[in-house]
Amino acid sequence: MILPISKLPVKVLRKPVVNVELPADKKMLRLIKDMIATCKAADGVGLAAPQIGQNLNLAIIYLEEAGLPAFPIINPVIIKTSKETTEMEEGCLSTPGLFGKVKRPKKITIEAYNVEGEKFTITDDTFLARVIQHEIDHLKNTLIIDKFEEITTGKELLKKYQDK
Questions:
Q1: What is the pTM of this model?
Q2: Could you write out the three-class secondary structure of the chain?
Protein backbone atom coordinates (compact mmCIF):
# COMPACT_ATOMS: atom_id res chain seq x y z
CA MET A 1 0.00 0.00 0.00
CA ILE A 2 1.26 3.47 -0.87
CA LEU A 3 1.34 5.68 2.23
CA PRO A 4 0.90 9.48 2.31
CA ILE A 5 4.21 11.31 2.70
CA SER A 6 4.37 13.94 5.45
CA LYS A 7 5.54 17.34 4.26
CA LEU A 8 6.71 20.31 6.27
CA PRO A 9 5.48 21.99 8.39
CA VAL A 10 3.91 18.72 9.71
CA LYS A 11 5.15 18.33 13.29
CA VAL A 12 5.93 14.58 13.13
CA LEU A 13 9.03 15.46 11.08
CA ARG A 14 10.41 17.22 14.18
CA LYS A 15 9.15 14.73 16.80
CA PRO A 16 11.67 12.42 18.55
CA VAL A 17 11.59 8.80 17.38
CA VAL A 18 11.34 5.67 19.50
CA ASN A 19 13.34 2.51 18.91
CA VAL A 20 11.63 -0.35 17.11
CA GLU A 21 11.10 -3.53 19.12
CA LEU A 22 12.73 -6.53 17.50
CA PRO A 23 12.31 -9.03 16.02
CA ALA A 24 9.76 -7.25 13.87
CA ASP A 25 6.17 -8.40 14.22
CA LYS A 26 3.69 -8.77 11.32
CA LYS A 27 2.54 -5.15 11.69
CA MET A 28 6.13 -3.87 11.43
CA LEU A 29 6.90 -6.13 8.46
CA ARG A 30 3.81 -4.74 6.71
CA LEU A 31 4.89 -1.17 7.46
CA ILE A 32 8.36 -1.85 6.00
CA LYS A 33 6.82 -3.37 2.86
CA ASP A 34 4.49 -0.35 2.52
CA MET A 35 7.40 2.07 3.06
CA ILE A 36 9.37 0.37 0.26
CA ALA A 37 6.35 0.62 -2.06
CA THR A 38 5.85 4.28 -1.08
CA CYS A 39 9.50 5.15 -1.67
CA LYS A 40 9.44 3.44 -5.07
CA ALA A 41 6.17 5.16 -6.09
CA ALA A 42 7.58 8.55 -5.05
CA ASP A 43 10.78 7.93 -7.03
CA GLY A 44 12.81 8.30 -3.84
CA VAL A 45 16.09 6.74 -2.74
CA GLY A 46 15.20 6.57 0.94
CA LEU A 47 12.29 7.08 3.30
CA ALA A 48 12.29 7.51 7.07
CA ALA A 49 9.34 6.53 9.26
CA PRO A 50 8.62 10.16 10.33
CA GLN A 51 8.03 10.92 6.65
CA ILE A 52 4.99 8.64 6.71
CA GLY A 53 3.74 9.94 10.06
CA GLN A 54 5.39 7.33 12.31
CA ASN A 55 7.84 8.41 15.02
CA LEU A 56 9.80 5.15 14.74
CA ASN A 57 13.59 4.73 14.48
CA LEU A 58 13.31 3.12 11.05
CA ALA A 59 14.25 4.05 7.51
CA ILE A 60 14.21 2.41 4.11
CA ILE A 61 17.14 2.59 1.70
CA TYR A 62 15.94 2.25 -1.89
CA LEU A 63 18.80 2.14 -4.37
CA GLU A 64 17.58 -0.66 -6.64
CA GLU A 65 18.61 1.32 -9.75
CA ALA A 66 22.17 1.17 -8.38
CA GLY A 67 21.88 -2.62 -8.08
CA LEU A 68 21.21 -2.67 -4.33
CA PRO A 69 18.02 -4.37 -3.10
CA ALA A 70 15.76 -2.20 -0.93
CA PHE A 71 16.38 -2.74 2.78
CA PRO A 72 15.40 -1.28 6.15
CA ILE A 73 17.81 0.18 8.67
CA ILE A 74 16.26 -0.26 12.10
CA ASN A 75 17.49 1.70 15.13
CA PRO A 76 20.54 2.91 13.16
CA VAL A 77 23.47 4.74 14.71
CA ILE A 78 26.36 6.40 12.90
CA ILE A 79 29.44 5.19 14.76
CA LYS A 80 32.17 6.72 12.61
CA THR A 81 32.50 9.51 10.05
CA SER A 82 35.41 10.63 7.93
CA LYS A 83 36.95 14.07 8.27
CA GLU A 84 36.78 14.33 4.48
CA THR A 85 33.47 15.80 3.30
CA THR A 86 31.64 16.02 0.01
CA GLU A 87 29.01 18.47 -1.12
CA MET A 88 26.11 17.44 -3.31
CA GLU A 89 22.68 18.71 -4.25
CA GLU A 90 19.93 17.02 -2.24
CA GLY A 91 16.18 17.07 -2.28
CA CYS A 92 13.64 15.49 0.03
CA LEU A 93 10.24 13.89 -0.40
CA SER A 94 9.04 15.98 2.57
CA THR A 95 10.05 19.28 0.92
CA PRO A 96 9.08 18.79 -2.75
CA GLY A 97 10.55 21.27 -5.22
CA LEU A 98 13.27 22.44 -2.83
CA PHE A 99 16.88 21.46 -3.54
CA GLY A 100 20.18 22.63 -2.19
CA LYS A 101 23.79 21.78 -1.64
CA VAL A 102 24.49 19.78 1.52
CA LYS A 103 27.93 18.99 2.89
CA ARG A 104 28.30 15.60 4.54
CA PRO A 105 31.11 13.28 5.62
CA LYS A 106 32.30 11.29 2.62
CA LYS A 107 32.63 8.00 4.50
CA ILE A 108 30.50 6.65 7.33
CA THR A 109 30.11 3.51 9.37
CA ILE A 110 26.72 2.68 10.85
CA GLU A 111 25.32 -0.03 13.03
CA ALA A 112 21.69 -1.01 12.58
CA TYR A 113 19.41 -4.00 12.90
CA ASN A 114 17.50 -6.13 10.42
CA VAL A 115 13.92 -7.35 10.90
CA GLU A 116 15.13 -10.46 12.77
CA GLY A 117 16.90 -8.25 15.31
CA GLU A 118 20.40 -9.07 14.05
CA LYS A 119 22.92 -6.23 14.22
CA PHE A 120 24.80 -5.36 11.03
CA THR A 121 27.41 -2.79 10.07
CA ILE A 122 27.73 -0.78 6.87
CA THR A 123 30.85 1.19 5.98
CA ASP A 124 30.52 3.17 2.76
CA ASP A 125 31.87 6.19 0.88
CA THR A 126 29.52 6.17 -2.13
CA PHE A 127 26.04 7.60 -2.73
CA LEU A 128 24.75 5.00 -0.26
CA ALA A 129 26.59 6.82 2.55
CA ARG A 130 24.84 10.08 1.62
CA VAL A 131 21.39 8.46 1.48
CA ILE A 132 21.91 6.75 4.85
CA GLN A 133 23.02 10.05 6.44
CA HIS A 134 19.99 11.86 4.99
CA GLU A 135 17.61 9.24 6.40
CA ILE A 136 19.32 9.12 9.80
CA ASP A 137 19.03 12.92 9.90
CA HIS A 138 15.24 12.45 9.61
CA LEU A 139 15.39 10.11 12.59
CA LYS A 140 17.16 12.89 14.53
CA ASN A 141 14.55 15.50 13.51
CA THR A 142 17.01 17.18 11.14
CA LEU A 143 15.96 18.13 7.63
CA ILE A 144 17.92 19.27 4.60
CA ILE A 145 16.67 22.82 5.12
CA ASP A 146 18.71 22.77 8.34
CA LYS A 147 21.86 21.78 6.42
CA PHE A 148 21.72 23.73 3.17
CA GLU A 149 24.98 25.40 2.26
CA GLU A 150 23.17 26.96 -0.70
CA ILE A 151 19.63 26.62 -2.10
CA THR A 152 19.81 25.62 -5.75
CA THR A 153 16.11 25.30 -6.65
CA GLY A 154 12.90 26.40 -4.98
CA LYS A 155 14.16 29.25 -2.80
CA GLU A 156 10.67 30.75 -2.89
CA LEU A 157 9.35 27.56 -1.22
CA LEU A 158 11.60 27.89 1.82
CA LYS A 159 9.17 30.10 3.78
CA LYS A 160 6.40 27.55 3.11
CA TYR A 161 8.57 24.81 4.63
CA GLN A 162 9.74 26.69 7.71
CA ASP A 163 8.33 25.27 10.93
CA LYS A 164 5.33 27.25 12.12
A1: 0.95
A2: CCCCCCCCCCHHHHCCCECCCCCCCHHHHHHHHHHHHHHHHCCCCEEEHHHHCCCECEEEECCHHHCCCCEEEEEEEEEEECCCEEEEEECCCCCCCCEEEEEEECCEEEEEECCCCCEEEEEECCHHHHHHHHHHHHHCCCCHHHCEEEEEECHHHHHHHCCC
